[in-house]
Amino acid sequence: MDPRPSETRGSMFAFYSQIDDVGKGGGPALVAGLIMASGRRFAFNVAMTGWLVCGCVLLTLRGFIDADVVRAQEQVEDELDGVVAEEGGGGEGASRDDEDDADNVA
Question: For the region Disordered, what residue ranges are annotated (predicted)?
């Protein structure tokens, strides 16, 4: 599940897409510039250092992802409970389909 609220999911994906495209275009140019200025070994070391730093950041963030998913699920459940309460729902056990069926029978 995507832990971002649905109201901001499109904006975040657009931001990610833009940054990804900049990286695809700028990364090779940066590496080519490093190779020309400092040699292949230095450029390789810079690239590996960047990869290792990013890997460490991702490993650090791993612990927060599960908590974000749980929090997002709770927010969605709270919003749904609020919608059901506004519509006069019958509590946790009643579903919207059960209410519609009861209206059709009566």
Answer: 80-106
